[in-house]
Amino acid sequence: MNVIGISGTPRKDGNSEILLRYALKPFENNGWNVKIFLLSKLTINPCKACDLCRENGICIITDDMHGIYDAFRWCNAIIISSPVYSRNVSSQLLSILDRHYAVNIERPLEGKVGGAIAVGRGTCGGQVITINAIYTWMLSCGIICVPGELNGVTAVADKPSDILNQENRLKQAEILGLNILNVAKQIHS
Ligand SMILES: Cc1cc2nc3c(=O)[nH]c(=O)nc-3n(C[C@H](O)[C@H](O)[C@H](O)COP(=O)(O)O)c2cc1C
Questions:
Q1: CATH architecture for residues 2-188
Q2: What residue owns the CA closest to ligand 1's atom 2?
Q3: What is the pLDDT of residue 57?
Q4: Mutate to test the pocket of ligand 1, among 18, 87, 121 (most ligand atoms within 8 A of CB)
Q5: How many angstroms does the Cα of residue 157 sit away from the middle of ligand 1?
Q6: In the chain, what are the domain boundaries?
Q7: Strands, E assignment, the chain
């Protein structure tokens, strides 16, 4: 079984990336194949709306998105994390969500299982909006959204790695991963 994690922060050691790594731990412990995509390292350009993908199902932009298209097909589960930017997902992550448009006819994520993580500086800084933006995208791709302890994982943190001081949030991220893993297992049993 295969899981992918997409980290939407452009920062090294971003808090949202750290939570994503905690959410992926249960998969590693259960022998799943785990692939993580760090938007701090990849180049994903925005969709140009050329619509050539509507003719041949292939995006003509040559960048790292093609590895993510393959991962969409390969995975059984997907977890996405984002920093809160302007009360929404990061623009780096939004490019990925938009670029799914090119494979929407193929529906590579249909029936798969997913979860979301959002970290912002402010209390009520837009974490819930960010989680819901990810959920809305997941639902439109046919992904079954799985909650963590309460909902998706939201957290308040600012400087890189600050989240490591919040044991409770790290635990909640692991619970999110475990819940996704259990639903995926049930679907495939
Ligand atoms: C361009 C930009 C916009 C931001 N907008 C918000 C915001 O609307 N609400 C908020 O709570 N924090 C906002 N922040 C703060 C980040 O969400 C916060 O630093 C968070 O820890 C970043 O996640 P990361 O550590 O995974 O990179 C913003 C930061 C930047 C750089």
A1: 3-Layer(aba) Sandwich (3.40)
A2: 85
A3: 87
A4: 121
A5: 9
A6: 2-188
A7: 2-7, 33-38, 77-83, 113-120, 144-145, 153-156
